[in-house]
Amino acid sequence: MLKLGAKVALITGGGSGIGRAISELFAAEGAQVHILDLNPAGAAETKAAIESAGGQCEVHICNVAVQEEVLTVVAKIGRVDILVNNAGIAHVGNLENCSVEDFDRVFQVNVKGAYNALFAVVPVMKTNGGGAILNLASIAAVVGITDRFAYSMSKGAIYAMNLSVARDYMADNIRCNSISPARVHTPFVDGFINKNYPGKEAEMFEKLSKSQPIGRMGKPEEIAKLALFLCSDDAAFITGNDYPIDGGFIKLNN
Ligand SMILES: NC(=O)c1ccc[n+]([C@@H]2O[C@H](COP(=O)([O-])OP(=O)(O)OC[C@H]3O[C@@H](n4cnc5c(N)ncnc54)[C@H](O)[C@@H]3O)[C@@H](O)[C@H]2O)c1
C-alpha cells in the first residue's frame, strides 16, 4: 500500500539535494508531486527521474521569495495535501561579515519564502479539510555554530514559525512539523565549501563530515525517509515538533 496515494505534494526547492530526494520518494509513494524551484535544469532532472520511475511530477519555475509568484502557482495547482518548505540558501560569516545585502538575501529566501508558501497553501488546506506541512529548519536553529549568523537567524525563524502554524491550524486538521538536519551532502554544502574555502575543499569536507559524531554527513535519502514519515498518516498524532536528524550533532558532541 502506497503511503501517499492520491495526495498532492508541493515541494519547494525540489530541483536539488534534499528537496529532490523528498520529491522522488514522495512520488514513489504515490504522491502527485509539484516542484517549485528557481532552477529549470535541476527541476527538469528531478521530474525526469520521477517519471522514469513511473511517478507523477509537475515543475513550476518560481521564486519563493516573491509572494505573487507563489500565490499564482498554488492557485493553478488547486489542491495541496502536503507542503514541504525546503528551498533555502546558505551564508557563511559572523555578524560583522554579514552585509545588509547578505542578510536580506538569506531572509528573503529562507524566511519569507517559507512564509509565502504557508500563506498560499494553508487556506487551500483549510478548504480541503486539512493537510501536513514540513519545514526544513536546521541544527543551526538551536546550536551556536561558528560563522552562521544569517543562516542561523533564518532557521531560528523557521523553528518558531513551525510552532505558530502548528498551534493556529490544529483545529483545521493541519499538522505542521520541522526537520533539523546537521550536514547533509548536497550541492548546497559543496557550493558553500567551494565558495568560502577555496584551495581547502577536501580539508573542509573532512572537517564538516567529522563534526557529526557519527563521522559522516547525512544523505538526502535519509532526510527524505523522515520527511515521508512525518507527512504520511503514520504520523497522524505528531504536530508542532522539530526532529533533529543529525548523526548525534546536538546531543553527543562532547
Ligand atoms: N545540506 C545541508 O547540510 C542542510 C542542513 C540543514 C538544513 N538544510 C536545509 O535543507 C534545505 C535544502 O538544502 P539542500 O542542501 O538540499 O540545498 P540545495 O542547494 O542542494 O537545493 C536547494 C534548492 O532550492 C532552490 N532554491 C533556492 N532558492 C530558491 C528560491 N528563491 N525559489 C525557489 N527555489 C529556490 C535551488 O534552486 C535548489 O534546487 C535548505 O532549506 C537548507 O537550509 C540543509
From TrEMBL:
Keywords: Oxidoreductase
CDD domains linked: SDR_c
PROSITE patterns: ADH_SHORT
SUPFAM superfamilies referenced in this protein's UniProt entry, alphabetically: NAD(P)-binding Rossmann-fold domains
Family: Belongs to the short-chain dehydrogenases/reductases (SDR) family.
NCBIfam families with a match to the protein in the record: PRK07231.1
Name under which the protein is recorded: Glucose 1-dehydrogenase
Record Pfam families: adh_short_C2
Ketoreductase domain ranges (all copies): 7-169
Protein species of origin: Sphingobacterium kyonggiense
